[in-house]
Amino acid sequence: MNEAAWRTLLDLRPDSTPAGGLQRELRSRLVTAIRRGDLATGMRLPASRKLAAWLDISRNTVTLAYNTLVQDGLLEARHGSGVYVAQSPPVRAAVDRPQPAQSWVRRPAIMPSLMRQVNKPRDWQSYRYPFISGQVDPELFPVNGWRESSRAAWSMAETSIWSQDVIDADDDALVEAVRLHVLAERGIRAGRDEVLITLGAQQALSLLAQLYLTGGRVAGIEDPGYTDVRNMAAQFASELAPLPVDGQGAIPDAALLRCDIAFLTPGQHCPTNAVMPLDRRRRFLEQAALSGTVLVEDSYDWDHRSEDAPPPLKTLDAVGQVVHVGSFSKSLAPGIRGGFMVAAPDIIAELRALRRMSIRHPPLSDQRILASFLSLGHHDAHLRRIRPILAERAELIRHELPLAMPDCTAVHGPGSHSFWIALPDGQDSQRLLPLAQAEGVLIEPGGVFFADPARGARYFRLGYAAIRTERIVSGIAALARAVNLLRGA
Prior knowledge:
Elements: H1 3-10, H2 22-36, H3 48-55, H4 59-71, E1 75-78, E2 82-85, E3 129-130, H5 143-153, H6 156-162, H7 172-186, E4 195-199, H8 200-213, E5 218-223, H9 227-236, E6 239-246, E7 249-250, E8 261-264, H10 278-291, E9 294-298, E10 322-327, E11 338-342, H11 345-358, H12 364-375, H13 378-404, E12 409-411, E13 418-422, H14 429-438, E14 441-442, E15 444-445, E16 459-463, H15 472-488
Parallel strand pairs: 3-14, 5-6, 5-8, 8-9, 9-10
Antiparallel strand pairs: 1-2, 4-11, 6-7, 10-11, 12-13, 13-16, 15-16
Helix pairs in contact: 2-4, 3-4, 5-12, 7-12, 8-9, 13-15, 14-15
């Protein structure tokens, strides 16, 4: 193979690869070429100096990649002769098979792909102004703290603990860290048998929907409210009872009395950012006690609450009717998929058994890293660092919005990560979406949060955790241009 062939085969792009990852990327490309059969057993690879020159990378990078693959047995170093492809696993030829006329024999019982969802582009980071919720600015991630926690979790002693099969148990260290470093700070006392670790709050909510609604029961859903909860409940419930929302969050009206379970976001209502006051929280508890309704408290944004925020529902729970759901997605990173539930021991026991049927438990290695991150104080330090940054971003938006879009109204709850914005009557945020994207702006149209999308047509959510501070002013200006285009359409 000549220089051009090697360049094409490996397709290494030094300019777009971080310096520290170039050697790993080269190894990955070589392994892939071997596995595909592009590099056959016994084939001689170019000398490290020559391949480095061809790929425009350092010779040391090639040498390290070769040496590592020799140690792994994929390459073979022959003294005085060079580096060769070692005996590789055989690659089976693909077998052509007839394509069925339909993709399944029997139609699925449900069609989740047809349910309304909050859709965000997977390449959201390529947009200059990503005003979306549920994502974080990668530059704010605590790399050093996470790296130290990862090293601690991957020591030989730790590996011998988390690599074992624990059936349906959680990592004791993480359960203890959640109790001491997270729940205690929220004022929630919980025993070890009252905590369940989950793959984010999403899995916790899904397990609760299955546990309490299977067989056809009534679910109370905030309207507007979290779209995914509505979809989860719709799979199992016989009825979805809308819980109306005002400027103080969900309202404990007569609909609650018919519900077997009700899903609430009292700390920061999703999506309006309303904070439920203490007296209303007490009314929810009193009314739910009369009907035996289980209240699910989704505390997705708790870590960024204001100092005078009312206490969680769970701290007021005297009879065990509240299930408290938490997540590290908004405070740390959604990709970590770290979450937890707090409930009475008998409820946790059923949820644990239900979780076992699908995943047994979240990966113990990930749990141990998160446990170290909490116990070493990195999470607290991270929150202290990012809170003023997010507050600055919120203040910039609060200042710019009325100047750029004076005919729009915006609600921003204390500690929330977004603004809930209303366009003038008659304007549709779904039509605004492509106009904003053309300006490099991502927003979240509001109709998807309502049981009747038409009621939310004029609203949209503007998040600011993912956008860089220095881009906010120009981003609001770009959004205003899109709004003006919508107005003139």
